[in-house]
Amino acid sequence: MIDQTTGPVAAELTRRLESALAPTRMALHNDSDKHIGHAGHDGTGESHFSLVIESAQFEGKNRVQRQRLVYKALGDLMDERVHALQIKATAPGES
């Protein structure tokens, strides 16, 4: 099940994650409005996100390894468009 936030950055985040990690469950939420006036809020309305993602590719990997897979999938978006990304990455069967 995919639950995504609309907007061009969210759409590209979703596309890249689906392509690289084939998630069995994913929820991407735009948290940018919670950060108005804070560092990194660029006024676009798409700078801060939270992600819950489940993928078989996370099996046998620790938290840091899983986050690295997410960052690798997102590539330049993390340098150019996204200021903050909160990640909860699990393998199927984990909670």
Summarize it.
With 95 residues, this protein is of the alpha/beta class. Helices cover 32% and strands 23% of the residues.
Task: Characterise the protein shown here.
This protein is an alpha/beta fold. 32% of the residues lie in helices and 23% in strands. Helix 1 packs across helix 2. It has a four-stranded mixed beta sheet. The chain has a single domain, classed as 2-Layer Sandwich (GMP Synthetase, Chain A, domain 3), CATH 3.30.300.90. The longest helix has 14 residues, at 8-21. It has three helices and four strands; from the N terminus they run βαββααβ. The chain starts with a strand and ends in a 5-residue tail after the last strand. It has helices spanning 8-21, 63-74, 77-80; strands at residues 2-3, 25-30, 48-54, 84-90.
